[in-house]
Amino acid sequence: MQFNKVSSKVGYLLSLALTLLIASCVPLNHNSHPITIGISSENLILKEPIVSLLEKATGSRPQIIAKGSVSLTKLACAGQLDAMAIADDMWAEVLCPDASWTNDSGTLYGSKIQFALPTETAKKLGWHERLVSRAEVLEALQSGTVKLASTLPTHSNSGYNTLLWLTRETIGNSIAPEQITAKSLESLQPIYQNLALSSESTSYLAEKLTRNWQPDTLAALYSFLYAPDGSGLYLHNQKISVPRSLTLIDVSPTIVVTPTWFVTTRDTQLKQKLIVEVFEQLKAENPQIFSRIKQLNPPVLEAKVETTPVAAVHRTLLENFHPAIRQKRWLVGIIDGSGSMKGQGFSQLLSAFGELLPAERARANFLYSPEDKFSLVVYQGSSAYQLEGGDRERLWQALERVSVKGGTPVKAGLIEGIKAAQNIPPSYSMEMFLFTDGQFNNPLDTQLLNGRTPRYV
Length: 457
Fold this sequence. Notes:
D-Maltodextrin-Binding Protein, domain 2; Rossmann fold; globular
């Protein structure tokens, strides 16, 4: 059996829990708490100018939440943000269509999604130093000549726009919601069922690529993350070398996203200050910052432009991504049910699974696929056991009934989780997650963490 290392990085399930934790901590009373601004990765270059202008306008320093556009939009929908600078205004239309948010930003600038491929492969394909058509990219991905490294379309702007770009090759520039069906998306199945790498975060995907960029991996990242000569990627303002020489692939048509800002507060006085004294003053008071942005995101000179689809198209494509395109998945969750998880710890864990297991919530989060399976192992006291549940709803009910108590036998949990993983059919993509507060009462050994388990099974 192919078995990936057990990782303490929880992935999207834990990120949902952390999002809920942050949301619960963000105050709404501005008389005693800071103003809260959400800024996505595409706009973090504007963080200090926004803070400076806001301090000048209000006399207080705001709280900045740096997350992806989707997570920030969800926080804004829940009333937990006063304003946000995100990657694309379509997320507001899709995730919170009834919101009455103020958006007068127009297009602050354009961020190009840049493809890159190891030079040796680019030369073999004849893609080196020339404009490559979308049809060529699609054919290479469908045939398996190259594999795609992209963020998740359902949770990341770069991944979604790459998916939309590929979809338009077969459906066309002008897409109606009824055109997006399992049948019309069939051509994308071999691409998204055999991804090279994926992530919710564009910057985290870039970080993974700096450690493992295979010769056949075509990456879709924002252009400002690449060194112009393809020698590295910029992570947290530091240039990190990549394992092999890259060719930056210019494609036709170009994929461009347009960062924008929304004022989401219901406080009329604060809303006016944010609009007039902060966001409308960004360009006027920070010409050097916008000059730098222009260097990182040069204007697209191509005449061919694709219009932005209506929100119904975006929503339909997102809803169809999991069930119609990607490989069916089996998630193994190894869950800490010890006494130290009592209270906030287990409550956050339930909040995360509550966004994934109940079908209605999973659909709302664009996480639902009817073919997905789950195995949940709880470890507590001195042993571990697998929760019984024939479907996601019953499994969710069983998880809600877990009573946290006893010690933290993480080794027993991992052994039970690995046993469950070994019974998963090869037609599924298996993912294993360890959920814990980290207070172990028994040691882990290297063999177990590397998935070498014959003496335990």
